Amino acid sequence: MIRIFVVFIALWAGLSPAVFAQALSGVALSGVARVDPARSGIEQTWLGRTSLRLHLSQGVPFRVFTLDDPARLVLDFREVDWSGVRAADLLAEETGIDGIRFGTFQPGWSRLVADLTRPMLPGDIGMALDDATGDAILTLSLEAADPQAFAAASGVPEDTLWPQPQPDMPQAPVADDRFVVVIDPGHGGVDPGAEREGLSEKLLMLEIAFELREALIRAGDMDVVLTRESDVFVSLQSRVAQAHRAGADLFVSLHADALSQGGAEGATIYTLSDEASDTATAHLAARHNRADIIAGADLTGSDDEVTGVLLDLARQETEPRSMALAQALVQGMADAGGPMNNRPLRQAGFSVLKSADIPSVLVEVGFLSSKRDLENIRNPAWRRKIVAGMARSIAAWRLSDQAQRELVRQ
Ligand SMILES: [Zn+2]
Questions:
Q1: For the domain 179-297+307-409, what is the CATH superfamily, name and number?
Q2: For ion ligand 1, residues whose CB falls within 5 Å
Q3: Which residue among 134, 216, 251, 406 has the highest number of C-beta atoms inside a 10 angstrom radius?
């Protein structure tokens, strides 16, 4: 027998932002719900409505909201195992949804984000529980809305029961005299980054981050902090905030993207620019800075924080230090055998490089779109070499930076 224990008939008018959050009382909610892809999917139903159905191995608390510009539908769960589910299997033509992503948002929390081709708001939302099997079926219908109504109903709900987009991860303040390296493995969780041959940028970069931490700690006398230590989504803003909280002396973001055009290959080190210098770089910057949109978490107003005269002054001092760090990495990685990009030093407007007072670089250790680079990055022996080169670069930069600053002080 199927018991319907949560049904919402939504009246969206006047709700801003719209949110459905429900603790399912009387139901065992511990553990992870698995998605059955064969019995899940998105399809068009009567009167141009779109219906989404997720078949889960058990009931879990969930919430639904929409985000505008671009229009997205977001479902948060506690907690769903997506293994074996492919986005393409869930999607159908002409549903008003042309893209879907899912994964871990924060430990214990899962998220599904659907890209809407036109403004649509949730109508009926419900989770039905099968008493015999314990299975749960989440159904949700979407109805066309006019753009103004959609915009008014959209936004990240401010409820404290649910994870916020910028997790305030507790971090012990680090004593000032310690040298702190913050390593930022790109992407994570619901945002996989580039994907090739069953490998994902988010997991490869986590691996390299662990290896680089090892190498730096072995080099001695450094504290190393990672912006994430598992496959979770971390917003761009939180990555930068963590660097500040840790008292970072430098910030290194690790990536290995895929670029369809231009045949990009080889390691490339980026520092911050106001304007991206060429189209490939602009494309890459747009990709990275979209990470939070991909995950459904918006970086609203983050650019406002990095304006202001004081920050500009700090940046004037930091800029040449970031450049020197980038040059040291180009040198050290080339000495370790590279291979380097034909123009290994570049500038781009990446959001994670916008700390005014922390020398920051973004390293594309290679491109997953290059066969050669992909072979290297998946090869532990190559990684050992390149990571050792990066650690030597950082140690060398530290010495010359200290000497330089003492000179300035005299
Ligand atoms: Zn990336």
A1: Zn-dependent exopeptidases (3.40.630.40)
A2: 186, 193, 255, 257
A3: 251
